[in-house]
Amino acid sequence: MLLNSVILVLREVLEAAMVVSLFMAFTTVSQQSRGFLLKAILLGLIAGATYAYFLPEISNWLEGIGQEITNTIIHIGIYLCLTGFLWLISSNIVLPNRLVKAVMMAAIILAISRESAEIMLYISGFRSDHFLMQSVLSGSLIGLGIGVSCGIFLYHLMIALKPAAATKFICVLVVVVGGSLMSQATQFLIQADWLPSTEPVWDSSHIISEHSLPGQLLYALMAYESTPTLSQIMVYLASLLLMLVVIISGRFSRSLQHD
Amino acid sequence: MKSIRLYLLLILVATLILVMFVSLLKGYQSSIDTAQRLFDERLVNTAELIASAHTGQTTADSSQRPSSDYLFFQIWNTKGQLLTRSDTAPHIALSRLEKGFDDVNFNGFRWHNYVHPDPQSQRWIIVGERSDVRSSMAEDIVLATILPAFFGILIAAILIWWLIGTGLKPLKNLSKQLASKQADDLKPVELAPLPSEMSQLVKIINQLFWRLDQSFQREQRFAADAAHELRTPISALQIHLHNLRQTYGDNSEDWQLMQAAVDRMGHLVNQILMLYRTAPEQIAAKAEQIDLYKLTSEVIARDYQQFEKRLQHIELIGESAMMHGHLFALETLLQNLLNNASKYAPTNGHIVIHVHPTEKGVRLTIEDDGPGIPADQYERIFDRFYRYQNENSDLQLPGCGLGLAIVQHIIEMHHADIKLTKSAFESGLKVVIDFPAALNK
What family does this belong to (chain A) (predicted)? Predict the structure, then answer.
């Protein structure tokens, strides 16, 4: 049970830690205040608790696929925020900018609310089973510790770079995380039977298992799946492409303004 | 990076957590495997014990068997007949009669079974254990070793916080010393013990202080020497001018302009000399208890001639007011302010001076009935070499624009506050200065 808890909590925490540390590094590199990030984290936790509280009801929506559809909407929401962020910082804006702050806050609130709701729901499922609670809590604590530590390392890795290189690195990671979010959204739609479930295109579980620590890290970073379906791969690549187009067009509009 | 201590704490604790938790997970996995092996051995032993304890060929009757809800056994003969079973066991074989371990679902649980052949008595013994109970027992054993690690990390974090604080103490001491230094304190920084990592930094800081001190001293010496050396030829020039006027009896405008220019040059040199005599280190070193009321009356008495010459009424109101300050600097301040008041007050004008002790120190107020200064010029008139010229007045007053700059300088050295407002007369300026009772506070 401990191992299952570690894997579940680590997966959720890593995803949220990625988004938070990326934006934290961006605010540090661009010398902006970081108080709003803390507010976003707290608001995300409150939203997560609310989401977890109403999740049993939400799950019953749309003939039992409410949770999958809500999760899909949240993932698409985060993806749109990340795309907006990339557009803003690629185009000609002066930092600090209110809109950039707003999209960062929205992305963090959405990411933390979804991930924390999953964790809260998972732990609360063992409320009545004191026998398992201890190992679930220990596993969750280990998962939380590893996830947050990875986030701290990622943040310090980014701020150790020169500002220009750090901003580029942050953009690349935002694109990768964006693709991962859309790939997960596709998975939810497959679970909800809104998208057809097809045969996996490949099986790489013998190289990196999804249940191993590197597998979890890769899942958080780029939604690694050892057995992805064609629709997941297509959506993943399309999302990456869209973000790259947004960055290029942002830079293009900036160069036009400069001319 | 806002704080080195916080950065080190975060990064070290994150490293500790990452390394420790990943090792714990590895340890957990191998401990669980070991525990499962031990439980399997126990299952084999139980099967062998049952085989040796039960030798009869009785048919299934479980009424006398001890029962457990997470353990069962069945004894079958080679013909596939159930000889006996525990309370919890069903009447059908829960595993195929083949030697080894097997996992099956039964009664809403997953069971881990061991099938043991007993060739002597031609029987098969099936012993099963609930998998969830096995896992929980294994986890209980392993968790007992994991839980202290959480407290260990907490204690390690506190220790790291404290140790980093201790390690950074020399840096904190250096920053404290630099922060507490007065603007004029250019003495070298002393750190004991001095860590090797900081010796170069302290050396460079002290070299900078030394060079700064040297250049300050050079600058002061130059200004003071130059002013001092200039005084003699200017005095000689003034005497020669006077003699020339006496000899030729010429009182034309050219003579008067030349006289005014030489007087102005003399005044300027005197003011520069005064500015450097009131250097911060001199003020701090030679501060003493002074009665400002008494000092003001002395300065008025000394310079009374200039007020008398212009038929000005000067009035000193107040009482004895003791304060800590530099005598020469305060004399200069009073001289400059009274000089200014006299210069701008008209003939037959009024100058009123108040000196009173206050709760925090001493208040000095000087008012005149001159033309005054517009409020937007209050800040600027303290600038060096800035002279305010009233647009409505044709009066060309002598001066070099250093008087109020010197006043401001002396006020700063005494940590006093100066305020300019309109005087109580119809027009004119009111200067209010609040001195603290003690210097350097």
Answer: Belongs to the oxidase-dependent Fe transporter (OFeT) (TC 9.A.10.1) family.
* Domain count across chain A: 1
Does a cis peptide bond (omega within 30 degrees of 0) precede residue B66?
Answer: no
Residues of B whose CB is below 8 A from A33: none
Pairwise CB contact (< 8 Å): A149 & B24: no
Closest-CA residue of A relative to B8 is A156
Mean pLDDT in residue range B229-236 = 84
| Contact between B49 and B36 (Cβ < 8 Å) | no
pLDDT single digits (tens) B285-327:
667 889 999 999 999 998 888 888 889 999 999 999 999 888 8
Average pLDDT over residues B401-418: 84
B18 interface with A at CB cutoff 8 Å: yes
Closest-CA distance, A241 to chain B, in angstroms, reads 34
**Which of A4, A28, A146, A157 would you mutate first to test chain B, the one with the most B CBs within 10 A?**
A146
**Residue B62 Rama label (left phi>0; alpha psi -120 to 50; beta):** alpha
A149 vs B7, B18, B28: nearest CB? B18
- What is the distance of C-alpha B230 from the center of its chain? 48
Separation in Å, CA of B291 to nearest CA in chain A: 52
Please give the average per-residue pLDDT across B388-413, as a whole number.
Answer: 70
- Which residues in chain B touch residue A9, judged by CB atoms under 8 angstroms apart? none
| Burial group, residue A140, by CB count within 10 angstroms (0-12, 13-18, 19+) | buried
For residues B61 and A125, the model is more confident at A125
> What is the average pLDDT value for chain A, to the nearest integer?
88
Three-state DSSP state, B113? strand
- φ/ψ region of B368 (left if φ > 0, alpha if ψ in -120 to 50, else beta) reads beta
Structure tokens at A80: 């749109």
Q: Which of A3, A31, A142 would best serve as a mutation to test chain B binding (most B beta carbons within 10 A)?
A: A142
Overall CATH class of domain B196-277: mainly alpha
Given CB atoms, is B146 within the 8 Å cutoff of chain A?
yes
pTM value? 0.66
Q: Which residue of A has its CA nearest to B2?
A: A28
Contact residues, chain A, for B151 at CB < 8 Å: none
Q: Where are the domains of chain B?
A: 1-51+68-179, 196-277, 285-390+397-436
In angstroms, the separation between the Cα of residue A152 and the nearest Cα of chain B is 7
Rounded Cα–Cα distance for residues A57 and A53 (Å): 9
Residue range(s) defining the domain that contains residue A75: 1-257
Confidence (pLDDT) at B62: 47
Q: Does B241 touch chain A (CB under 8 A)?
A: no
Lowest mean pLDDT: which of A38-52, A81-95, A103-117, B353-367? A81-95
Strand order in the sheet with B417-422: B313-318, B350-357, B361-368, B429-436, B417-422
CATH label of the domain that carries residue A75: 1.20.1250
- CATH number for the segment(s) B285-390+397-436: 3.30.565.10
**ipTM computed for the complex:** 0.80
Contact B287, B323 (CB under 8 A): no
Asked whether residue B58 carries a pLDDT value surpassing 60, the answer given is no
DSSP B427: S
CB contact under 8 A, A2 and B143: yes
What's the mean pLDDT when you consider all of chain B? 83
User: What distance in Å separates residue B132's CA from the closest CA in chain A?
Assistant: 10
